[in-house]
Specification:
single chain; 245 residues; alpha+beta; 4 helices; 7 strands
Length: 245
């Protein structure tokens, strides 16, 4: 049994005595609105394969570079003091002397020349001088030293003038490495005294070769010895094309 309501009071809050609503009910919020979830984004299968392929490629590149550097560092560095291999040209085989395992390069040719050739190179500078010193064996078994010098001039015309001047007697030349004291071969002071000589012009390059027998080598007829040395010099000019390239 319900408790009696006081006189004049509506039986329920918000309702008048006749059951009519007098004030809005409190505590009611806005009606709940439900939102539909957006559809899941469709992935492109082709794009997925492309991305996978790029990933595999990156892994392969990184692995390859790692292998290369590890193996490259493991290789011993070549020694600059070790003579290069024998070089066969025509009928002779040439071996660099140990003191000059690799050809020497200079940019000032006049500083490494003498007499009229020096004066010419002072007024007509070269671009580069390359010099090497080699040993070989003559056909009769004697040891020979051959100096190979390559003078690169600024033009073919300059090279022709230098070659013409060097071919003349008593005009000087570029220094061989014995004359310059780089290699000691006492009692030889240079390789120009033996009579072996040959020069050629190949474009801007003038290749000059001088040769003499090793100290202590028994010599025979002077004319025949000069012919032997000249033959070796002609053969050695092929070395000039290699070291002066």
């Amino acid at each position: 049994m319900s408790a009696p309501h006081p006189p004049g009071q509506p039986p329920w809050p918000g309702l008048g005595g006749g059951g009519e609503e007098t004030t809005p009910l409190r505590g009611r919020g806005e009606p709940v609105q439900f939102r539909a979830e957006p559809p899941a984004r469709q992935q492109n299968p082709a794009l997925l394969w492309v991305l996978r392929g790029l990933g595999l490629l990156a892994v392969a590149v990184i692995s390859g570079l790692t292998w290369y550097y590890l193996n490259d560092e493991a290789q011993p560095a070549p020694s600059a003091a070790t003579p290069t291999e024998e070089q066969r040209t025509g009928q002779f085989t040439f071996t660099p002397v140990p003191e000059v395992a690799a050809p020497r390069h200079d940019s000032n040719c006049a500083e490494h020349a003498y007499d009229k050739v020096k004066a010419f190179l002072q007024s007509t500078p070269c671009q580069q001088l390359t010099r090497g010193l080699y040993t070989t064996t003559s056909q009769d078994g004697r040891k020979v030293y051959a100096s190979v010098s390559v003078v690169r001039m600024a033009s073919d015309a300059d090279a022709a003038q230098l070659r013409e001047l060097a071919d003349k007697d008593n005009t000087g030349n570029v220094n061989d490495l014995v004359r310059e004291g780089i290699v000691k071969l006492p009692p030889l002071n240079s390789l120009s005294g033996g009579g072996g000589y040959h020069a050629v012009q190949h474009g801007q390059n003038v290749i000059i070769v001088e040769a003499d027998f090793a100290p202590g080598t028994e010599k025979g007829d002077k004319k025949k010895d000069e012919d032997t040395l000249d033959t070796i010099c002609v053969d050695a000019t092929l070395l000039g094309d290699r070291i002066g390239a």
